[in-house]
Amino acid sequence: MNAAAEDDSDYMTEDEMAEAKHKADMDNKMKAMIREILFYAVLLFLLLIVINGQQDANSYRQNANIIATFQQRLRNDVSSLSVINNLCFVVTSKTI
Fold it and tell me: pLDDT per residue over 69-95, tens digit each?
């Protein structure tokens, strides 16, 4: 009878198993959260390196000219498109 009593003490009760499972789940969530925080910290560090690299004195003027060129083309395309749309509207309204 003593041998059977000693064998029972080696097993965990349901409450102990539930507590151990809960602790294991919390540990896994904590590891995932730490991994995610480290990933974002490394990503931010790399982003800062890329942003601050290659700072040239003429880069601002170059970027401003590129933006101005595309904005001018966009204005020209929009105005051309509006002229074409107005022309199509006039032509179709006269035929109706």
Answer: 877 766 666 665 565 555 555 445 555
58-73 pLDDT, tens digit each: 777 888 888 888 777 6
Alpha-carbon distance of 88 to 80, in angstroms, equals 12
Tokens found for residue 14: 């349901």
Q: Which residue has the tokens 């109706």?
A: 96
Q: Distances in Å between the alpha carbon of 6 and those of 9, 10, 12, 15, 60?
A: 5, 7, 13, 19, 79
Instruction: Establish how many alpha carbons lie within 13 A of residue 24's alpha carbon, considering only the half-sphere containing its beta carbon.
Output: 6
- The token duo for 86 is 């107005």
Give the residue extent of every domain in the chain. Answer: 1-53, 58-96
Vertex 44, ends 39 and 47: CA angle to 5°? 125
